[in-house]
Amino acid sequence: MKREKRPGLKRLPGSPLYMQVKEDILSRIESSVWKENTKIPTEAELCREYQVSTVTMREALKQLVNEGKLVRIPGRGTFVTKPKMIARLNSLFSISRWAQAEGITVATRVIKVEIQKCNSYVSHHLGAKEGESVTKVERLRIGNKEPLMFEVVWIPSRLCPDLHLQDMTNTPLHDILRDTYGIPLTKAVESIEPVVPDDYIKHLMGLDGKTLLLKVEHSTFTTKDEVILFANSYYRGDRYKFIVELEK
Q1: Residue range 72-94, pLDDT digits in tens
Q2: What is the pTM of this model?
Q3: Domains defined along the chain, listed by start
Q4: What is the number of alpha carbons within 13 Å of residue 162 lying toward its C-beta?
């Protein structure tokens, strides 16, 4: 059986060939040999270049499409996607300040603000009594005119009365809590998992059925170690990457 290899591609023992091809293609993307929105060679052309079978190349490209590095457009070909936006979770994260630092024009669209009774799910995360009054806020965060994140936030009404009267379109929520209500924020606990968006979120964010979201459950604490805010934030999995730096 003829060995499949591309000249210059070092075959590593124990590493599947499709993974080696994938990583080589990825290096071409990350080093900007193939820039954003570039149409890459066809599958057949890549097979000849790398001297691999169609099965091997197809699996390598499939992996890159699943990871959001490439996108297939029917009738046009396969293209390099936009680089993912990187958010570091080493401190309390503010999408407004992050966007400013990244040179992204961010806008906030408040979808809904309402006072409601706390259900068992929210009371568990807020440490509030079931049936207690909470302010629920739904917001869509937009970066460079592209929907990036949808969030649902719950805050105890007893701690932040008349929150619905505050300008949550133009002022970061963390700033409102600190400056208007005198509540300093000290730490947050987050969990991240991939989810399939429901029809409501897909409509708000203009998503198709193939886009996965990164759901972040977020609880923010005050200096009294009391939960002031609980949120479910839905980030586009094809546009975001979270990085956590760990120190010994």
Answers
A1: 988 899 999 876 666 666 555 56
A2: 0.68
A3: 17-80 (1.10.10.10), 85-243 (3.40.1410.10)
A4: 4
